[in-house]
Amino acid sequence: LGSYTYAMYCYHTTIFFLVLFVMLKLGIPVTVMSGTTFVCVAFTSFFATLLASVLSYHWYEKIFLILKKRF
Fold it and tell me: What is the pTM of this model?
């Protein structure tokens, strides 16, 4: 998890608002959240952020870390 934390820091706000936007488009009220809605938003945002950060690390950051060794 330590390798992915920078990407998690970068992506968490964007993904959180993206999850809220999608839920709003699906007709789920997010302005006044119930406990269930809050838990759904929190878990969905966390796992989507984790997925995005893992993919970003392996497809983007890792390439630059390998290049860093050459210079």
Answer: 0.82
